[in-house]
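Re: Re: ligand-bound prediction request (bumping)

Still looking for help on this. To restate: I need the protein modeled with magnesium ion bound, output as structure tokens. Inputs repeated here so nobody has to scroll up.
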Amino acid sequence: MDHHNGETIFALSTGLGRAAIAIMRVSGSGSADILQRLCGKLPPARKAALRSVWQDARTQDNLLDEALVLWFPGPKSYTGEDGFELHLHAGPAVIQAVANALVEAGARPAEPGEFTRRAFTNGRMDLVEAEGISDLIEAETESQRKLALAQTDGALSRLYGAWAERLKRVLAHQEALIDFPDEDLPPEVEQGLLDEISALIEAMQSHIQEGERGERIRRGVVFAIVGPPNAGKSSLLNWLADRDAAIVSPVAGTTRDAIEVNGSLAGVRVTFIDTAGMRETEDEIEAEGVKRALFHVKHADCVLQMFAAQNVPEDVFPNAILIGNKTDLGSVPAKVLDTPVIPVSVRSGEGLSALKKLLEQKVESLTARSSFGAPLLTRARHKAGVQEACACLEAALQQDWPEMRGEELRLAMRALGRLTGHVGVEDLLDAVFGQFCIGK
Ligand SMILES: Nc1nc2c(c(=O)[nH]1)N(C=O)[C@@H](CNc1ccc(C(=O)N[C@@H](CCC(=O)O)C(=O)O)cc1)CN2
Ligand SMILES: Nc1nc2c(ncn2[C@@H]2O[C@H](COP(=O)(O)OP(=O)(O)OP(=O)(O)O)[C@@H](O)[C@H]2O)c(=O)[nH]1
Ligand SMILES: [Mg+2]
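Reply:
Sorry for the wait, this slipped through. Here it is.
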């Protein structure tokens, strides 16, 4: 994608649902001219003004709307360049007419994430903060909101920046060892340097480990509901979803595809996946369903293994929560192979509130932080970057040659720099900003 910061871009920043007001956002060096063309004299900076919006204000040709107008001169604006907002009456015809007038005045529609991309390019925020903005807009639960907001506030960026600073000092000491090999530098210098590298490795490793929680909060905790046909898996899904998401029937093998339902538990986004009942089958489609069920057993954060009272399983999946259903028809054992069984009857409702409590606890333990307040990584991109930096530091420790060690340290610095976007990220930007909402 070719990006021209000189161009003036616009986008509708408010959602397309039923709403009274729509915000059209404009950014770029042509903003002052375009705003004057549509609304006449520029309003005072950052003060709302009520204006008529015209196709051309000079000729008072074609009145489009009466709008609140905000003028944001750069470089302190969100994008770092001149821009303005029109708070219009929401309505497809108003929006279309204003968009046409903007194009006629020289602006073009923005790409997804282009406003924030400009904020990044103009040094208003780094890459990690920009990703946080995108997550904040997507956040559906309280925990997602908090995590994203901390990220837009620079908490994660500051952690990576602090590591980069420490690395810079290590590198400086390393250079001193290279430049003055014959001077009698005290041996503590080299030892101190190695200790600092080890400390950084440890910090990065625990950050990666904790990061699993951040990724879970961001994407949601995934529960896979599995078990033999007719156990009542789809019935449980429907109860958890509070709607008829999946077909329930007495026919064994009713569910063949995986059915996902999103919800929230303990303020955390969760996904429940109902799967095909596991059994040997000649049916090609059902067999594919069973294959998918096994896939979800492997990839879910937690497996809900369900069985019906009369049909106690011989094996228990690792880390599964065992649910014995249909207690209205018969009793279930207290344990199977040392795993406690949660007795429920989805039909009568018995045990369901206890099950829900248990699931809430599970969600909390899967997302709770061990070190309070430390920022969490939230994406595979962050994890990969920290892992790369960490691998370079480990390689640095293995190097006896000072020059080679210095090279590994520089590579680690570079990996951290790419994370926040301070170095060499041109190739990454389309991927990062392409995931944004239009108008942000
Ligand atoms: N209508 C509207 N609401 C919005 C935004 C927006 O752009 N427009 N935001 C967008 O994300 C968020 C709030 N963020 C904002 C960030 C900066 C400024 C602003 O007025 N900046 C001043 C400079 C402020 C200063 O540093 O002194 C400026 O633009 O000149 C406004 C909102 C959420 N709500
Ligand atoms: N008596 C009784 N019947 C139940 C209970 N829960 C579900 N059922 C019934 O058991 C049958 C199978 O339920 P489903 O939820 O479709 O079972 P499933 O595990 O999704 O089955 P498959 O999709 O075939 O793998 C249906 O007739 C349900 O009404 C229960 O607690 N007690
Ligand atoms: Mg089913």
